[in-house]
Amino acid sequence: MRYSKIFAKTNKSAPHDADSPNARLLAQAGFINQSMSGVYSYLPLGLRVLNKIKQIVREEMDALGANEILMPALHSKNLYDTTERWDSIDVLFKLKGSGKKEYALGSTHEEVVTPLVKEYVKSYKDLPVAVYQIQDKFRDEPRAKSGLLRGREFSMKDLYSFHLTEEDFNKFYEKSKESYLNVFSRCGLDAVVVEASGGVFSKFSHEFQVKTEYGEDTIFNCKCGFAQNKEIAEVKEDDDCPKCGTGKIQTSKSIEVGNIFPLKNRFTKAFGFKVQGQDGKQTDILMGCYGIGPSRVMGSVVEVHHDDKGIVWPKAIAPFNVHLISIKNKDEAIQEKIMGICQSLHDELNQLGVDVLWDDRENISAGQKFADADLIGNPLRIVVSEKTLADNSVEWKERHESESKLVSTENAVNKIKMFIDAPDNLTSH
């Protein structure tokens, strides 16, 4: 794709309330545009990243055995009356329609998914069931902040599982932890499973936290894998680890990127969702909830992977694999060669499934193009100029490295394909 044709370009200004790296950098790099506090439009580059994260989530949820569905965002008040949560969910957006009927915009979907699944599960033989969706959620946050990390409208993958026995639920719950860790690892995040409050549902739930100095949460953790959220922590810094007994507890700032909850029969009981078990007795169905925010993951990646020049995207979710730059030359013959090589690289790489963003702008200086490439943060920058032509080469610079090198034009396509296909060595920044 030619950068000259992309709808939104880089912008030196950031929203006045950009209080975090992701809020500032995603706006400046042309990924998102703030409509109002906590609400964003995803511009072409941003939508590419968001869709790649969603695809990774889909692949892992499908591998877990869940079925994708799509439920309504507009909910009847009657559903919340059934669970007695109309007045207890403090972030619920409420509205009135014709005939004075009352509705809510979905902040979560237990009230919708439980009667939906009940309608199709007629016997214990139909269980277990796991369904998920990827949809925008709405929460009336009193103070939206930190860019994509805490918004009023945001993308959410919510999965709900239904089980006949505690044993079956526990097996699925543990498998979901591995699936979640796979999602975050593929997105370039090193997530930690953290014990958190289970609220009214159970003693514990589990959060997936990513350590970063820019985090808004605090976790107490040990190198053995023990970790608790500050809200429920039974330990303090420098305590002996209660799990391994040899390590010392450390505190870390972190960002929550996902969570999973045992819901037991809180919602199935409210909706009278029972089935006859193998023993002939009516049994309440057990339920779990599993959430990942693709938009929050996107913001978290930027919080973790950036430097003083801009974003440093992991390969799997970068908007483009390669940022190709042509440096304009006043000599028409040289300029024609530069553009010809760029066109050839662009087309050959696209045929191999490598996404290329070609900065073909004519009236932009080389320095500005380099600065924009660093700000946007694609994994690999390739430059074609009069200087590289003289060596029958292109300039090669990986985003997370400080030095560039020359690679022969003849070998460039193969080397680029090998680089893109190789495992990402981007772990933290």
Describe the structure.
The mean pLDDT is 95. With 429 residues, the chain is of the alpha+beta class. Helices cover 31% and strands 28% of the residues. It contains 11 helices and 23 strands. Strand 19 (322-326), helix 8 (332-351) and strand 20 (356-359) form a beta-alpha-beta unit. Helix 2 (44-63) runs antiparallel to helix 5 and helix 8 runs parallel beside helix 11 (409-421). The protein is elongated, with a radius of gyration of 25 Å. The strands form 6 sheets. Strands 3, 7, 8, 9, 10, 11, 12, 13 and 16 form a 9-stranded mixed beta sheet that branches. It has a 5-stranded mixed beta sheet with strand order 20-19-21-22-23, sandwiched between helices. Strands 4-6-5 form a 3-stranded antiparallel beta sheet.
Q: In short, what is this structure?
A:
This protein has about 425 residues and is α+β, with helices and mostly antiparallel strands. It has helices at about 20-30, 45-65, 75-85, 110-120, 165-185, 265-270, 295-305, 330-350, 365-375, 385-390, 410-420, and strands at about 30-35, 40, 65-70, 75, 95, 100-105, 130-140, 155-165, 190-195, 205-210, 215-220, 225-230, 250-265, 275, 280-285, 285-290, 305, 310, 320-325, 355-360, 380-385, 395-400, 405-410.
